[in-house]
Amino acid sequence: GEDGYDLWLRYRPIVDEARRVEISAHATAIVAPAGGETMRVAVDELQRGLRGLTGHEASRVPAPDRGGAIVLGTPASSPAIAALRLEEALKAVGDEGYVLRSVRVQDRPVTVVAARHDIGVLYGTFHLLRLIQTSASVTSLDVSERPRLNRRLLNHWDNMDGSIERGYAGRSLWNWAALPATVDSRIADYARANASLGINGTVINSVNANARTLQPEYLDKVAAIARVLRPYGIRVYLSANFSAPRTIGGLATADPLDAAVAAWWRAKADEIYARIPDFGGFAVKANSEGQPGPQDYKRTHADGANMLADALASHGGVVMWRAFVYDDSVDPDRVKRAYLEFTRLDGTFRDNVFVQVKNGALDFQPREPFHPLFGAMPKTPLMAELQITQEYLGQSTHAVYLAPMWREFLASDTFAAGPGSTVARVIEGDVHPYADTGIAGVANTGSDRNWTGHGLAQANWHAYGRLAWNPSLSPEGLADEWVRMTWSNEARIVATITDLLLRSRETYVDYTMPLGLHHLIGGDHYAPMPENADPRRADWSAIYYHRASRDGVGVDRSRRGTDAVGQYRSPLRERWADPATTPDALLLWFHRLPWTYRMASGRTLWDEIVSHYTRGAEGAAAFEQAWQSIAGQVDAERHVAVAAKLHQQAIDAAAWRDKCVAYFRQFAQP
Ligand code: GCU
């Protein structure tokens, strides 16, 4: 059946007869060296894909003895590839890159997938399959690809009891009770999906980490997962609880400057690497939202990160120290706190420490200005953290395609080294020379049969992985690619679904956070709750962020207000300090304005807010209509499941409009 399990690796028969014949002629056989596990999975994937797409079995042969063969390998493993003298091209694509070439070998036309290492061959194989799946040309190929970031990670916020923090697609994929004896066969499919995008690492437990994950019994289980992921080029990482030396180590302290504590972590690292020689390292959430950390001992974030980094260094591991901190004693404005805490530590971290920074300074809102830390830590490699799971974006009920949001972030100019210093270039180590580079995405996967709950949310996993490989890819191209691989190559279907996807983020912004109003939710982070006043913390409340009164609405973050704009470089700090030069989309993020404020559109602020809510709710209703227009043209099972989600989305969007308009009207038109 069509339950969405296959994701974008569906490999259903090519519908167009001429195209199917053409592809078959370009896939007469597979020439691949014996190689190891990675070569084996590359050949398996190619055979699986071609079998599905063409209906023919491409058999594996020892040499390119016929036209139309696909030749896989490295110069070291394949005499046929060595003879092509691709050294220069392969040098340029690096350790994980690859080239695809249409060439003649012994006067026969063949397609070559060549790389320096087998992992590049696997990535190149997925690229070739993608070309076939998306109706692209497979003749005259001359493709060279290399990833722009070294570490392309998923972060799973999975708890040891099988629940997933902010997960909306079922339970954890890791079955701790059955491991290590049994590894769910699904894990290999998880690895295939990730490798098809170029994802090469996974932090498998929540950043709100349970120290028990580091106990030997659990490390055996982690090692079993790592064994399944390894052939696909995916390394396992763990979130580490900073108090582990106390909670599971029996020490009296977890002070990072205590010699016994450092020794405990060194021994722990040795224990991990004995089981998992390619273990990636630790992600750490410290002194944030109640998690323990070095500040508990009056030490700095750098003291904590460096102690862990020293334990991992000899094994080649890294520390990803999260900058998601917002201690309210640092500054009254939450969005300023992480910058104030971390910029002063630049230059004090070990070489194998990343600081991992969310895209925005608040918390994964549907739109935020980029986090001012990007471009502000020239001596510390910053890893960007994106959230694929839709915590604040309709969870697994609303269709919100995140590629446009991520591109907006990656393309933002920080001006750190003059114009053109985009966030993408910062994390690529191109603005300041970083020794290592990376990106992390909080996964939206779970035990649901279709992995992501909402059928269209699969597109976000896909887009994240592809942007991690190349942050310059366009949302339009990614949506087109995903739809063709996942639904159909038929023009009208492609147009309908890509159009829906590409509108969805702005539509969601319109009905949840027009003009930069943000965090208008309660504890579920789903339903509208602009009146929310959280008794525990002001900055968990909605009213802290919108501050609506008869005088106006929004937070003044200009120089007259909290001066959050001062954390950005010129010309942004001047541009965003003045409502007249602040883009509408961020207006109430940075400013507090009267309801009668005159917008560029000529409307008052109040009318403009209402028009966004109205447009957003109408947009959501239009998605349901658009989806109905392709009923009967894609498989019914997946169509019906998405239709039900879109129906609920339209209802919820109208509820957002009604609730927020009524709430703000009390102040705007008392
Ligand atoms: C958000 C989210 C938490 C999560 C935290 C984090 O606040 O709601 O569930 O733990 O981010 O990123 O650490």
UniProtKB/TrEMBL annotation:
The record's Gene Ontology cellular component field reads: extracellular region
Q: Where is the Alpha glucuronidase N-terminal domain?
A: 7-128
- Keywords, comma-separated and alphabetical: Carbohydrate metabolism, Glycosidase, Hydrolase, Polysaccharide degradation, Xylan degradation
Query: Is Hydrolase included in the keywords of this UniProt record?
Result: yes
User: Which E.C. number(s) belong to this protein?
Assistant: 3.2.1.131
SUPFAM superfamilies given for it? (Trans)glycosidases, beta-N-acetylhexosaminidase-like domain
Stored InterPro entries? A-glucoronidase_C_sf, GH, Glyco_hydro_67_aGlcAse, Glyco_hydro_67_aGlcAse_N, Glyco_hydro_67_C, Glyco_hydro_67_cat, Hex-like_dom2
The terms under GO molecular function for this entry are: alpha-glucuronidase activity; xylan alpha-1,2-glucuronosidase activity
The UniProt catalytic activity note for this protein reads: Hydrolysis of (1->2)-alpha-D-(4-O-methyl)glucuronosyl links in the main chain of hardwood xylans
Which Gene3D superfamilies does the UniProt record give? Answer: Alpha-glucuronidase, C-terminal domain, Chitobiase/beta-hexosaminidase domain 2-like, Glycosidases
Keyword Hydrolase among UniProt keywords:
yes
Q: What class of enzyme is it?
A: hydrolase
Q: Where is the active site?
A: 289, 363, 391
- Give the protein name, as stated in the record: Xylan alpha-1,2-glucuronidase
Q: Which organism is it from?
A: Luteitalea pratensis
User: Lineage, please?
Assistant: Bacteria, Pseudomonadati, Acidobacteriota, Vicinamibacteria, Vicinamibacterales
